[in-house]
UniProtKB/TrEMBL annotation:
One of its GO terms (cellular component) is cytoplasm. Residues 2-100 form the Rhodanese domain. This is Rhodanese-like protein. The keyword Transmembrane applies.
Length: 105
């Protein structure tokens, strides 16, 4: 079992660059499939959500909130949702040149 997983909730902008090993679950289809997502990820202690910049009210913070609320409601409260500060923009700025950490298409 992994200690954490990174969930990228971007849609078409996912194609520019992504965090190596992340799971792409676009925000536009996230809420309707939330119970399935919780079932898949509930055993992961830390679920890190991000979008392009993770501004308040953006896709990353919004989906992290939905996920955490659903985990709590379904008794999967040991899985904790957090948001990657600054989103993929900050990640690429810090780690964009490291092919082990950042996947560019």
């Amino acid at each position: 079992m992994k200690d954490y997983i990174v969930v990228d909730v971007r849609r078409t902008d996912f194609e520019d660059a992504s965090i190596a090993g992340c799971l792409n679950l676009p925000a536009h289809s996230f809420y309707p499939t939330l119970s399935t997502i919780v079932a898949l990820l509930a055993s992961v202690p830390l679920v890190i959500f991000h979008c392009n910049s993770c501004k308040p009210g953006g896709r990353g913070p919004r989906t992290a909130g939905w996920y955490q609320d659903a985990c709590n409601a379904q008794g999967a409260g040991t899985s904790r949702a957090v948001v990657l500060e600054g989103g993929i923009k900050a990640w690429v700025e810090a780690f964009g040149e490291d092919a082990n950490l950042t996947k560019k298409l």
